[in-house]
From TrEMBL, chain A:
Key word DNA-binding present: no
Protein's UniProt name: Cytochrome bc1 complex cytochrome b subunit
Topological relation to the membrane, as annotated: Multi-pass membrane protein
Domain of life: Bacteria
UniProt-listed Pfam families: Cytochrom_B_N_2 (PF13631)
Names of required cofactors: heme
Catalytic activity: a quinol + 2 Fe(III)-[cytochrome c](out) = a quinone + 2 Fe(II)-[cytochrome c](out) + 2 H(+)(out)
A GO cellular component entry from the record: plasma membrane
Native species: Actinoplanes philippinensis
GO molecular-function terms, A-Z: metal ion binding; oxidoreductase activity; quinol-cytochrome-c reductase activity
Keywords: Cell membrane, Electron transport, Heme, Iron, Membrane, Metal-binding, Respiratory chain, Translocase, Transmembrane, Transmembrane helix, Transport
Stored SUPFAM superfamilies: Transmembrane di-heme cytochromes (SSF81342)
UniProtKB/TrEMBL annotation, chain B:
Bias (Basic residues): 8-22
Residue ranges constituting the Cytochrome c domain according to the UniProt record: 62-142, 161-239
Pfam families given in the database record: Cytochrom_C, Cytochrome_CBB3
Record Gene3D superfamilies: Cytochrome c-like domain
EC main group: translocase
Organism: Actinoplanes philippinensis
Lineage of origin: Bacteria, Bacillati, Actinomycetota, Actinomycetes, Micromonosporales
Keyword Electron transport: yes
GO cellular component terms, semicolon-separated: plasma membrane
Protein name, as recorded: Cytochrome bc1 complex cytochrome c subunit
């Protein structure tokens, strides 16, 4: 019998040729696979959010297979003894069934919840990176706005998901949501009645939130994430200033194979960390919370951390109620200001920031090179001010837990939060602006005088001076000629110049080759080793 | 009234003595009888009521006398002589019962370190026998709630529903301060509901019965002894017995506040290092 000869080495080529013959894929694919992405660790923070979203979609699909979004009252007859015979909604019953009887169900529930927390946490970290490096500047303002919207949608996705199991804690959260709706002047009661289908809690809300949580919000999220990535793709990623990098080019790695492999690896790492959390750390133990009863409100009832800032603002708001003697009389409850006005301002101000900053700086150019935070102290100050405000509000959202665990009076915590909310942000602004200016000055100092060597030289007149290693050429007197700042890292230690130890190389730092590509515009200059010798 | 010849007057005086008593006499007699009745009533009252100021209380049992000796050296400065209380320092202990003493002294809350919002739990200053003596003294001094004999935890073999009923009662009555997980919570102005993680059945029962510190009293009309035992069953079997199916770390069961910390301290930290590592490999 004659054996057919298959040349394995030729197989991929033949396969690819076959595909190209049929679909003419080579030309568009070449452009895609050769697309260049700049490489920096901080550019990977947004990917954490993207990858946790994928984990959220996958684990969420698993959960929908077992969840029953119904508020019909049923007696519990599952394996969790401490609730046996208790009347509860079918939603809570199916969540318990999912946790205790479905194989791997509790792990998947925890995976979903931790992925949600990681999604929101990485959005915050990613936004901070984008903000502090000025990556939101023209032409990327719209993508910044989409990013803020993604946080807002994640906020609502998280809140609706938190409400679905219909346990004691989520019902308490719903009660607060209903109260916030009721604070809206004129339309409040109508809105709450429309959403809950009558008086709170009614029998419809879980079904409605379910559709919002599994279809509407994820659909919009998916669309916005696609737009977010598409715009990054079209506008190309920003990059740090550095050797060979200009506002007109992109220096980095090709999409295929290295960048794609790194991204694949990073996805595995993100998935792994979420799975580790889901397996080791218990989250949202709904079986302890019991079915929702309006009369049962636990102490330390908090929303998830990304909603906690709002809870904190509500806790800090003084009891200022406004009465409007008009018609039958209207009132604006104090909760209206932090929960409705506050939330609105906290989302619209960041959205408008790119245009506000451009207007202030009269800057209409397109920026593809990032700015080091220290080079724009005012922006860093404003960002730190916002972050401090967010942090104080978030901490105040958990102020009862902190008061209890650290033996502080709860009243003191509330007043500390009120005062801190007003005093700490300006303080953070001032301190961070001063730090930025100090770092700038140190950069300029090194560029002007050279790197400190740690070598002390004694002059003939007895004076001691430290020997500096100039980064560039020196003039006739041996004084370094001052160098221009290039917007990138200035070497500040001798080993960064290759003088004391092998050049930076290691686990967490990129292995750079200073020989053929200058790290900084000045490093290539002649090294004045003689001067160091003379100091000995 | 009548004629006033001397003979008649004499006879009238005589007859007045022998006949109907005069007004002054009647009044005197009434006063004497009233005094006698008062002395009798007061005497009976004094004889049948335990004297709060009795110098030598012969009714105290031997155990209670030991307790009194301890009381007089360790408690009297705030709670006063014979547990009457001292204003602005310590409340009266008349009627608090031995259950209260066993809780407060047995958990080290009493004697108090200093006057503050709430006494902290600390290593007990008295051993079990001394605590019992103190309790017996206070019990004999003014009566009050006592811990019942017998087991304080429901038998789940014979009454399997006790756990679920206890859970329901716990969520209705206890979680608003102690939290769903029994980890404790803050109250106003430095007061707090302590964690239940190390409370014994006796302490839980005594606390419900007597309402120590800032806790309300759950008397037998609010929660029957059987319901108290169900709650204790839920706390000891479900909450204390490490029933955390969700992982090695339960994050204190404080809910989202510790979970939010964990996602930054563990999740984001690990992944930032991962991204440093991945970006470093170029």
């Amino acid at each position: 019998m004659k054996r057919r000869k298959i040349d394995l080495a030729e197989a991929p080529k033949n396969f690819a040729k076959g595909v190209d013959d049929r679909f003419q894929a080579a030309t568009p694919l070449r452009g895609l696979l050769n697309k260049v992405f700049p490489d920096h660790w901080s550019f990977l923070l947004g990917e954490i959010a993207l990858f946790s979203f994928i984990v959220l979609l996958l684990s969420g699909v698993f959960l929908t297979l077992f969840f029953d979004p119904s508020m019909k009252e049923v007696p519990y007859d599952g394996s969790y003894l401490a609730l046996k015979g208790t009347m509860m909604s079918a939603a809570y019953e199916s969540s318990l069934h999912l946790s205790f009887e479905v194989r791997g169900g509790l792990f998947m529930r925890q995976l979903h919840h931790w992925a949600a927390l990681l999604f929101m946490a990485s959005i915050i970290v990613h936004m901070a990176r984008v903000f502090f490096t000025g990556a939101f500047r023209k032409p990327r303002e719209i993508n910044w706005v989409i990013g803020v919207l993604l946080f807002l949608l994640g906020f609502f996705a998280g809140f609706t998901g938190y409400s679905l199991p219909d346990d004691g804690l989520s019902g308490t959260g719903l009660r607060i949501a209903s109260a916030i709706m009721l604070t809206l002047p004129v339309i409040g009661t109508w809105l709450s009645a429309a959403i809950f289908g009558g008086e709170f809690p009614g029998e419809l809300i879980i079904g409605r939130f379910y559709i919002a949580h599994v279809l509407l919000i994820p659909g919009i999220l998916l669309g916005l994430i696609a737009a977010h990535l598409g715009i990054v793709f079209k506008q190309k990623h920003t990059q740090w200033p550095g050797p060979l990098r200009t506002n007109e080019n992109v220096v980095g790695e090709r999409m295929f194979p290295r960048y794609a492999m790194k991204q694949g690896g990073f996805f595995m790492a993100v998935f792994g960390v979420i799975a580790l959390l889901a397996g080791l750390f218990q989250i949202n133990p709904i079986w302890l919370f019991g079915p929702y009863r309006a009369a049962e409100v636990s102490s330390a009832s908090q929303p998830d951390f990304y909603v906690m800032f709002m809870d904190g603002l509500v806790r800090l708001m003084p009891n200022w109620q406004i009465y409007i003697p008009f018609g039958d009389g209207y009132s604006i409850p104090p909760m209206f200001w932090p929960a409705v006005v506050g939330l609105g301002a906290l989302f619209t101000l960041p959205m408008a920031y790119p245009w506000l900053e451009a207007r202030k700086l009269k800057d209409k150019r397109s920026h593809h090179l990032l700015e080091r935070p220290r080079d724009n102290p005012e922006r860093v100050g404003i960002g730190m001010m916002a972050l401090t405000f967010f942090l104080v509000a978030t901490i105040s959202g958990g102020n009862d837990v902190i008061a209890d665990k650290f033996h502080i009076s709860l009243n003191a915590m509330t007043w500390a939060g009120r005062i801190g909310l007003l005093l700490l942000p300006p303080l953070a602004y001032y301190i961070s602006v001063r730090i930025c200016l100090g770092l700038q000055q140190h950069d300029r100092q090194v560029l002007a005088h050279g790197v400190e060597t740690g070598i002390i030289k004694r002059l003939p007149n007895g004076q001691f001076v430290e020997v500096h290693q100039p980064l560039g050429p020196v003039d006739d007197h041996g004084h370094p000629i001052p160098l221009e700042y290039a917007g990138w890292v200035v070497p500040k230690k001798m080993n960064r110049l290759g003088a004391l130890a092998p050049a930076i190389k290691g686990f967490f730092y990129p292995v750079e080759k200073p020989a053929d590509i200058p790290v900084s515009p000045a490093v290539g200059g002649p090294a004045k080793r003689e001067e160091i010798k003379s100091g000995r | 009234m009548t004629s006033d010849t001397p003979a008649r007057r004499r006879a009238r005086v005589f007859s007045r003595r022998r006949g109907a008593p005069s007004r002054a006499r009647r009044r005197l007699g009434a006063a004497v009888r009233m005094l006698a009745a008062l002395v009798l009533a007061g005497g009976v009252y004094t004889a049948f009521t335990p004297g709060a100021f009795a110098e030598d209380n012969v009714q105290l049992s031997a155990v209670a006398r030991e307790g009194k000796a301890l009381y007089d050296t360790s408690c009297i400065s705030c709670h006063g002589r014979d547990g009457q209380g001292v204003e602005d320092r310590g409340p009266s202990l008349i009627g608090v019962g031995s259950a209260s003493v066993e809780f407060q002294v047995g958990t080290g809350r009493m004697p108090m370190t200093r006057q503050e919002a709430q006494a902290e739990q600390k290593p007990p200053q008295f051993n079990d026998a001394q605590t019992e003596q103190l309790g017996q003294y206070i019990q004999e001094l003014g009566g009050g709630p006592e811990l019942p004999d017998g087991p304080l935890v429901a038998n789940l073999e014979s009454d399997p529903d006790a756990l679920a009923r206890g859970g329901e009662l716990f969520r209705v009555n206890c979680t608003s301060c102690h939290g769903f997980g029994g980890g404790g919570g803050a109250l106003s102005s430095g007061k707090f509901a302590p964690s239940l993680s190390d409370a014994t059945a006796e302490e839980l029962y005594a606390a419900m019965l007597t309402g120590p510190q800032n806790m309300p009293v759950f008397g037998d009309n609010q929660l029957t002894p059987e319901q108290k035992k169900q709650i204790i069953t839920y706390i000891s079997v479900q909450l204390q017995d490490d029933k955390d199916p969700g992982g090695l770390f339960n994050l204190g069961r404080y809910g989202p506040s510790t979970e939010g910390m964990a996602i930054f301290l563990v999740g984001i930290t690990l992944l930032v290092f991962t991204s440093l590592w991945i970006a470093g490999k170029s």
